Amino acid sequence: MPESKGRKKDNYEAPASKSDRTPVRVGASPWVAPTMVTLFVIGLVYIVTFYIAGQDIPIMRDLNPLVNVIIGFAFITGGFVVSTRWR
């Protein structure tokens, strides 16, 4: 009966040490926070301006009041969408 050949085992290699690893960047991009705050402020200022002086501003006067509120909330919603990238 033929004799089986033994399996050749690979030499054990230790895992890389902690000093060889590259660090993972945890923080958000630097543009996220200023953009988020800017969108929040623009939306708030737009809505407040519409309620205080909306009839004196030609563009706001021509639009439906609901459209003006939607425009302001669209900026605020954009701020919330950008905030999902903030860590």
Cα-to-Cα separation, first versus last residue: 67 Å
Q: Based on CA inertia axes, which overall geometry fits?
A: rod-shaped
H and E string: HHH
Content of β-strand: under 5%
Name the structural class: mainly alpha
Given as residue ranges, the uncertain stretches (5+ residues, pLDDT < 50) are none
Gyration radius, rounded: 30 Å
Number of E strands? 0
Mean pLDDT: 86
What characterizes the major β-sheet?
A: none
> DSSP helix count?
3
Helical fraction equals: 40-55%
Kindly describe this structure.
- The chain is mainly α and 87 residues long.
- The longest helix is centred in the middle third of the chain and has 22 residues, at 32-53.
- The mean pLDDT is 86.
- The protein has three helices and no strands.
- α1 (32-53) runs antiparallel to α3.
- It has a domain at 27-83.
- Helices cover 53% and strands 0% of the residues.
Key structural traits:
87 residues; single chain; mainly alpha; 3 helices
Give a concise summary.
This protein has 87 residues and is an all-alpha fold. It is built from 3 helices and no strands.
